[in-house]
User: Fold FkbM family methyltransferase from Sulfitobacter alexandrii.
Amino acid sequence: MRFPKHPDIIQGRVRKLLRTNQYEAKETEAALRVVREGDVVMELGAGIGYMSTLVATKRKIASVHSFEANPHLIPYIQTVHAANGVGNAEVTNAILGPRKGTVDFYVRDALLGSSLQVLEGEVDPPATKVDVLNMNTVMKDIKPNVLICDIEGAEADLIPQMDLSGLRAAILETHPQWIGPEGINKIFKAFMDAGLAYYHRGSQGKVVCFRTDW
Assistant:
């Protein structure tokens, strides 16, 4: 995969990991195990466009729909898709939630360090408003059967509220250092209640995989 140069995004550790094929290595292995031809993939937390490009170029999926809160990453993700000939990907500058609205997103000089949270010691950090879309309305419109999610701890609140019944598989990077064992249990219960089971072959460390068809 090709990732165009960008002085504020592709630098330091990110550049090294991409060069050595170690970037998002656990998520990559999980995706290659569970994503299949014809799948409709929903991605929450698009980052630099790595996972959406991966599934679109390594598997003959129907489409991938990515949602990213950081408005400054959207143009770069689109250049990554273009550089890799991806024509079945859609990226939206928004997050999903239980109801429509807006939320503050805090932008930092290191773009990949921007987030929805104010960090300890920060005073009035620069913020921009980001749309919140109704999660279940989006799910009904897109009808994904695979979910990929890396939303920096927000998964503990979002996943239990989502209608997961149409999914065949899901890949999540969890953040136990922030959500604790209670948050992890909420996530596992939500997927089990929706008929998905923990898939050990696709799971490593904080990256967990669920599927209906072993």
